[in-house]
Amino acid sequence: xxxxxxxxxxxxxxxxxxxxxxxxxxxxxxxxxxxxxxxxxxxxxxxxxxxxxxxxxxxxxxxxxxxxxxxxxxxxxxxxxxxxxxxxxxxxxxxxxxxxxxxxxxxxxxxxxxxxxxxxxxxxxxxxxxxxxxxxxxxxxxxxxxxxxxxxxxxxxxxxxxxxxxxxxxxxxxxxxxxxxxxxxxxxxxxxxxxxxxxxxxxxxxxxxxxxxxxxxxxxxxxxxxxxxxxxxxxxxxxxxxxxxxxxxxxxxx
Length: 254
Hints:
Blueprint: H1 2-10, H2 17-35, E1 37-39, E2 46-48, E3 76-80, E4 87-90, E5 100-102, E6 111-115, H3 119-126, E7 130-135, H4 140-151, E8 158-162, E9 168-170, E10 173-175, E11 188-192, E12 205-207, H5 219-232, H6 238-246, H7 249-253
Parallel strand pairs: 3-7, 3-11, 7-8, 11-12
Antiparallel strand pairs: 1-2, 4-6, 5-6, 9-10
Helix pairs in contact: 3-5
């Protein structure tokens, strides 16, 4: 498969590298679905089952999300990463009062987590016009604990959350496929500190500066302005807007 794709790109010099990545993931997902399907003896239809190994991705077991009501003010969808984007976690106490103990059910170790400066203001600001989702490579129990205990205890902001079992794992990288969300990708923005996380939707992405606990950080203030610029400009398709603004595709092409 890799040989075929590589040969295809070499003989098609105008074929964008980002499209090559998407093509690779398309073939890879089809292969995954085929490997994890079996025949239902009663109905004669294929039945797709979730693998016990949650590190692999199989889009067939995702139930499509409800559509956004037509009268809703939610014009766009914001998909947000967690670690190093909204919070920073440590496995040892460092004496900084900003780092709170996260109580995770059945956890074998403790986490001490701090919330990025301006996080509450950022979520409050964008949630008026964006349907906000969490998409993290962290475990489900960890992500739920951070949401419930720190960044959204009243469940005001996050409509849905996707975690490590929902990622594709490729060469030790957790990749977030936005197509599983069932949302219009022309209206979907993903904000993450790791560009490989959204490599198959590079033009939907905003690469945020990773946060490691700096109390003077104001990155989310900057992100807030970008999200509002999309709304204020009534952007029909966020992909050409973000592509021109950040030109992340050039990093892959280089």
